[in-house]
Specification:
The chain is α/β, with parallel strands linked by helices. The protein has four domains: about 100 residues, Nucleic acid-binding proteins (OB fold (Dihydrolipoamide Acetyltransferase, E2P)); about 80 residues, no CATH class; about 190 residues, P-loop containing nucleotide triphosphate hydrolases (Rossmann fold); about 170 residues, P-loop containing nucleotide triphosphate hydrolases (Rossmann fold, 3-Layer(aba) Sandwich), CATH 3.40.50. It is about 40% helix and about 20% strand. The protein contains 23 helices and 20 strands. It has a seven-stranded parallel beta sheet, sandwiched between helices. A six-stranded parallel beta sheet has the order 15-20-19-16-18-17, sandwiched between helices. Strands 2-3-4-6-5 form a five-stranded mixed beta barrel. Helix 11 links the parallel strand 10 and strand 11. The longest helix has about 30 residues. The two termini are about 25 Å apart.
Amino acid sequence: MQENNGLSKSVRYLKGVGPKRSGDLAELGIKTVEDMIYYLPARYEDRAKIVNIRDLKIGEAQAIEGQIISVASRRTKSGLAMFQAGITDKTGLIYAVWFNQPYLKDYLIKSKAVALYGKVDRYDRVQIMNPEYEILKEGDPESVHMKRIVPVYPATGSLSVKYLRGLAFQAVMQYTRLLAEHIPTYIIAREHLVDVKFAFRNIHFPASFENLEKAYRRIVFEEFFLLQLALAMRKSAVKEDSGLRHRAGGELIEELKRALPFNLTEGQKRAISDIERDMSSGRPMNRLLEGDVGSGKTVVAAHSLVLTVQNGFQGCLMSPTEVLARQHFIGLSELLMPLGINIALLTGGMDPDTKNRIHSDIREGRVNIIVGTHAIIQEAVEFKRLGIAIVDEQHKFGVDQRVILRKKGDNPHMLVMTATPIPRTLALTVYGDLDISVIKEMPKGRLPIVTYWVEEDKRGRAYDFIREEVEKGRQAYVICPRIDESPAPDAGEGLYGIKTQNVTETFERLKEKVFAGHEVGLLHGKMSSKDKERIMKSFKKGKIKILVSTVVIEVGIDVPNATVMLVENADLFGLSQLHQLRGRIGRGEHKSYCILLADPRGEEASEKLKAIEGTLDGFQIAEADLEIRGPGEFFGTRQHGLPEIRFGNILKDFGIMELARREAFDLVARDPEFKEAHHRPLKAALEARFRDIYAPAVVNRNEARL
């Protein structure tokens, strides 16, 4: 907020705001005059064109102007209070009708001149229903609600759109002259931006749609520009630090290459090259490794861990779930222990004695690589010499956890991995401070997964198909959205007469009735660590033929013999999550099938299922998911340090985002401390906008390096 001027005044300085209204405004985030100026319209109505009454079109919202020639109040048969005014403009007569607004009789009086805007309908006569109105007075300098492009604000409770529009008009007319310019003049000129005062006047009360477009572009650019400046500062601060210089290559790395039972893809080779370059640069690596399900990110992580061990350091890999941590531990142990590398597993579910022993081994350096869950970042864990910290499925962790992990060493290299392909639009915001490597190719020999969306009446056929696959020697997953009995609203019953919303009931039914004679297992997050480990080992060895599970198996589980996945109530899952789940099959030599069982309610759910059925490309699916759900829902962006985008849309306005990013990163490269006079206003603006998230990048560059 702007300090020491009228913008920081309480909103109660505006006419018509009393104690009650100020409380209601505070619920909308409007506490000061500046808040009111920054409360932007949701849309606009073109009320500039006044239509003659005789030319009105039925079914459309239009603006008219005329004189009141009659008024009447009465009650309808249902008891509603109705007020009616007859209005003429000398080309015709129309009746304006309002319901439950009896007070209008005190304002809309015969002979008054009025402007109206609303939808025109024909019943027994032509009417304009519940229109907005403005009484016209001779000599009025400017209409607020009519005869212009009119802003429509998000309203709530007792605050009407008309009331908010009046407040916004006061704030804009009286206070926008006090708005300070943060963007340097040379950027304003280079990007053809209007000035801040013009922008806020025309975003609220545009003189034309051309002015509105210019104002919108300027305001969105500034929002994105400040965001990208903060990201650039974080990235710059990390790159300024001295890192742990690693020597690439070496005998241990060569042994790893010889131990791999397959050839690396070109994408894996590029990612390894990026990581080796970072780790040998003398600067701390801060890289995101992004790849589709099954693209082979774990092998790249293994290479990074071996590289740090070869250089005399320890490495760690932190996973979001115990199941995934155990899977990584087993896979890395099989690959790396024959090379003489000591690996330990650390999870929250371990008994205290085991934990204490592992803590000691880590502290004394007897363990080279530590694989675990959040337990790795507990205070009791001390590394002797941490060289690289790897975070798997980064989007399931918050920013603070990444910071704590980095603090476990002396500027260790950081690699974060995700199997959720990130659209470029989000990559420039959520991970805009990281370097990015992308693996798009799939390992050779992978057979495409066939995906079917079937409705509830095909449940029996789906079960028959699973039975056929199991009898061929294959294995199957059945995925449920819940652990306990908590059915979704209006959850229907299938052919088997039982709701399929929870994993426990589904397991009992499949075990006792549907797949009797076949070994059926149960896995979910509330089970003990020992039980989870026992079930996973049994499934991996082929003893359990059908595993009924929640999304605890979403990432990292690798059972090549599993060829079928049935997802119950698939419409309750996110699009990217369905793609992640599907990635648990198709990992062996046999053709695999994903069956999405759902009777979706609503067009959005149907579109989601059609999208996952139609493509195996995780990047296309991520784009579709972002379009359907929006940025906040797609990724839980707030937990990643991405502040709420107040203005603009990172999908629709991506071109503006790219321009803003280029200008921001150029500025930070040229003047990282904002010492030039025309950059100083940006420092205050950054601190105010990102006080809780990115302020350290500006205020304290040492802290930003975390």
